[in-house]
Amino acid sequence: MASHTQHYQLDLPKFDTPVRLLIVVAPYYKAIADNLVAGARATAEQAGAAIDLVEVPGALEIPTAIGIAGRQANYDGYVALGCVIRGETTHYDTVCNDSSRGLTLLGLQGLAIGNGILTVENMAQAEVRADPAKQNKGGGAAAAALHLVALARKWRKRDDPGGPGKDLDVIRLAGQLEGSPRT
Questions:
Q1: Is 122 annotated as a binding residue?
Q2: Residue 83 is assigned to a ligand binding site
Q3: Which of 4, 7, 91, 147 does the annotation list as catalytic?
Q4: What average pLDDT does this structure show over 175-183?
Q5: pTM recorded for the entire structure
Q6: Rounded-to-integer distance, Cα 107 and Cα 114, Å
Q7: Does 91 participate in catalysis according to the annotation?
């Protein structure tokens, strides 16, 4: 059951220079995806951000697309949008966990990502969460990305010519980097 509790929302950050956001959406459930995108677009435009949109087949491909863009394109932030509805098998758990884990790892590497991948029990829950006039989770994901972009810009070293998302340190979960000394 969805909570009707009001939650505090931060005001959108203000930017001196324009922000470029990439929205990556999995339109597996097209009507849900369209609502998520509408909410994300409205929030990004409210903050003056420029938006590009790409579609990928499913939620598992969203982190890969963002990772590629983070290495090869020039975006300040990313908005991940999609919907995973519980089915009869454990595939739901795999998709939810692995897409979330992928986005988290990219975020820990320095990419500013708002996660708007819905993980719900049924279509009715998805509809309420995606609707810009109701829970507006697409808008919330765009706002999260914008807040992270603002933090990245605030903390960026003045002599860093690469800008956000460039020359990211690699996070190793196990083992060592090749050629690094053993401690």
A1: no
A2: yes
A3: 91
A4: 47
A5: 0.85
A6: 9
A7: yes
